[in-house]
Amino acid sequence: MPAPAALVVLADTDTHERGVVAATLRAFGHHTVEAGSTAEAIECCRATEPDVLIINVDLDHGDAIAVLDLMRSGRALAHIPVITTSSDIGSARVVQCLRGGAHDHLRAPFDVSELVARLDVVLRLADERARLRQRKEELEYLGSTDVLTGLFTRRQIEEELARLGAAAARHHQPLAAVLIAVDDWPAIEAAGPLCSDGVLQEIAVLIGAIARTADVTGRLADHEFLVVLPMTNGEGARTFAERIRAVVAAAPILTDAGAVAVSVAAGCADGAPGPTELLERARAALGRALAAGGNTLVSISA
Questions:
Q1: What is the mean pLDDT of the chain?
Q2: Residue 87: DSSP 8-state
Q3: What pLDDT, on the 0 to 100 scale, is given for residue 75?
Q4: Contact, 79 vs 46, CB < 8 A?
Q5: In the predicted structure, residue 132 carries a pLDDT above the cut 90
Q6: What is the pLDDT of residue 108?
Q7: pLDDT tens digit sequence for 50-103
């Protein structure tokens, strides 16, 4: 069963070849936008948000390979599948493109019917990934557990913070919070989901290994974790945060994309009159830790 009609950006300096491919794709019901340079290809992708980019990486004397890095580095373009083509018959070029993030690669000259078939496969896979992402988001919203890390979701950890805060106030017991953020997150995220997901999962495991049974941990945002520490004062929170910081920084994290050197910043807070104020203090402390360059912790106590 063929994939549904798609909007395709075609990037190639050879206007004749580009025209032939465009005409064939249109004959199969697809819509095309043509570009003659790397810059035009990126501009077309930003302007039209196509379903697929097909680009000859020999563009601009081979500089078009940089498009793959650019596509992966920003959320606005990262979701667009890329099929690369090249007149280079060597395997090194193929490997370079696939490792750079291309979903498929064809050596020129190629049969246009083969390109159409491969395009259909890429489109079907992209559609399946989109449906899986949507389902994952639905499950995370409806449930209390973050699918990626196995920790509480934001909604659930905030509910736990409110519950523990009320119990601490009722029994006049100490309560502390530690907010942890991954340093240099944009660079880690730009390396792709195999890297960023692996980093988050490993940090979640490390936090779980250090936390006590009574401690409650959740993923508060993309790269932020909140740990609520019952019966813990400021000194105890700082000790916990320092252990996390030291363990994460001790060795690179192994992911499916390779080893990644990672550090975290932490904001510690205690002695607040309520859970909202406690989280605000932890947030302010984390901001100071990040402003100091990361890989450090800052504590705010009453």
A1: 90
A2: S
A3: 67
A4: no
A5: no
A6: 84
A7: 999 999 988 877 777 888 887 777 667 888 999 999 988 788 888 988 888 889
φ, ψ at 65 (rounded to 5°): -60, -25
Q: What are phi and psi of 107, to 5 degrees?
A: -90, 130
What are 106's two structure tokens?
């064809």
Kindly state the DSSP code that residue 14 receives in the 8-state scheme.
-
Asked if 151 and 292 sit in the same domain, the reply is yes
Same-domain pairing of 206 and 272: yes
Residue 125 confidence (pLDDT): 87
- Residues 280, 218, 168: CA angle, nearest 5 degrees: 60
- Where does a domain end: 108, 139, 170? 139
Q: Are 274 and 164 in contact (CB under 8 A)?
A: no
Location of structure tokens 């402003």: 291
Q: How many domains does the chain have?
A: 2
Q: Which of 73, 61, 76 is nearest to 101 (CA)?
A: 73
Q: Taking a C-beta distance cutoff of 8 angstroms, is the pair 234, 177 a contact?
A: no
